[in-house]
Amino acid sequence: MTATTPIDRTDWDDAVRPADDFYRHVNGRWLAGHPVPPEYGSYGAFHEVNERNQELLHRLLHEAADDPGADGSVRHKVGDYFLAGTDEDAIAAAGIDPLRAQLDAIDAIGSAADARAIAPHLERDGVGAFYGIGIAPDFADANAYLVYVGQGGLGLPDRDYYLKDDERSTQLLDAYRAHVATQLGNLGIAADEALAAADGIIAFERRLGEASLTKEQLRDPQLTLNRHTMDELDGLMPRWRLATLVREIGGTQPTVSVDCPDFFRVLDEAIADTPVDVLRHYLRWRVVKTYASALPPAFEDAAFAFYGTLLGGQQEPKPRWKRVLDIATQDIGELVSQLYVAEAFPPAAKDRCEHLVGHLLESMGTAIRTNPWMTEPTREEALRKLAGFSFKIGYPDEWRDYTPLVPARDSFAANRLRAARFEHDRQFGRLEQPVDKGEWLLPPHIVNAYYHPLLNEIVFPAGILQPPFFWADADDAINYGGIGSVIGHEITHGFDDQGSQFDATGALRNWWTEEDRTEFMRRAEVLEQQFNASPVTDDVMVNGKLTLGENIADLGGLAIAYHAFRDALHGAEPMVDGMTPDQRFFAAYATIWRMGYTDAYARLLANVDPHAPAHYRANIPMSNFEPFAAAFDIEEGSPMARPAAERARIW
Ligand SMILES: [Zn+2]
Fold first, then answer.
1. CA-CA-CA-CA torsion sign (505, 508, 514, 518)
2. How far is residue 636's CA from residue 639's CA, in Å, rounded to a whole number?
3. Residue % of the chain over a pLDDT of 70
4. Full-model pTM
């Protein structure tokens, strides 16, 4: 698990030729030696880093619990949250009491109007029942906040699960029915009634699913950013009066954005036509689904059996402390992160990463200036957009203020409710203020990175700035091929099929000429077809359209990281461990993608994840990239070196 050297030849499989499958060449023995552990659905470099981060946090959480320090301090809050989360006896003894107020209010519903009356309370309690309501910068003005309402209400991960009728889908829907009935049974509802209720809930969710946008459509900002006045929003749901609800929960502005107006029309009808006993069961189900992780084992085990094992391919649950840490990351993420970065992210690492980002941005500038397909006006806009990029590295300059949130030692579920209300109040409480440009959308101990199109910024948390992505002491080939390609990936998101629709200020504005857009999409289409031709399991292929933005980012990220690396070499060609700089760069790139999947989890991801399987994320970009073939003397037309005429190239 511990990475000790950037390139470890004992992980390689020399029986696989680089020309056939470079990913397996570099990772073959690692993959053979690291079957997916029973508590995971997939396991790879991202998980290795996460394991290390978690081990460190495990110690820090215990220390905070044992020696919490002053009331109101970070340690005190984190320690109390962790103690309540790991106190399984208290959780079992409390039963569903912590959610009694919510469940009693649902029991008392006698009509759809009654359901509407309690909806604002459920919303603030984190039970987003029928839809999602959130706050983000306005897509027309990144300095102001806007309320976004989005389709939702499904208990399965995507609308397709309700609409397909092949054998596997039917079996899954049957298992979902049984799961919903089990959870209602855990609330004390008789078995027959619970099964009938599950049927009613699925019929209701299927209507919402049919009216929902597909996951491919959801990637299109022109389709999903629709400004509505409050009157127009109430017009979509004349009985439910959604705009009025938004005001009741703290929305103060004259407009909101709606992702799928038709969904809300159908939802209004579905609520009105659904028998009130089904609505009651549906809302109970939503409460249990939201808080199962903080309820007694009967609830948590049932949720794991369905979502963890059947959908996610995990054979065993993670140990309790890891589950609590995962949930703490959602609820009190920046409190946990403060403990983490103090130990895991020295200032020297921050310096070196800032340099890397600077070089990657320069390299992107060169790619924009020299690519053969952009017209001049679009090239100028693209350079303006790049000049407007900002970046964040490691952790925030100023940590989020958690003063109003005080976790207690006695109830995990109560702490989760407190955290939901805190977050709700924090979001709505700042609607009228200018956008907080310093805010982080991921806690810094997370192994991930993001590009935010509305803020035109890239963000790299301390959690991912770790081996094998980033080595504080390694040669440049390792860091450009590793974290450099991730940085490049995030930068190009500003110019992919989604990001290219937002300008330098984050406003949704088409700054492309028709000609450029056509040529961009023609080039993207080549990549889409390559992924469409790639199998995930024996009967499922990669969805090239769903994964297009991420694949464009991988392809571009590799190219701009490589060119930045060549610049950084200043003409030198230092051999390290018998490898050329280019060979080490590509080996580092292939290493960060090592990952094994369970069959169930691979299928789930194929349905919902905009990222392709890691094997293809490594190999397909390299197979399109001439310097890779040159570095390993690979003959054109080999699996890892596509013929020149078939290569995808955007940046
Ligand atoms: Zn991405």
1. positive
2. 9
3. 99
4. 0.94
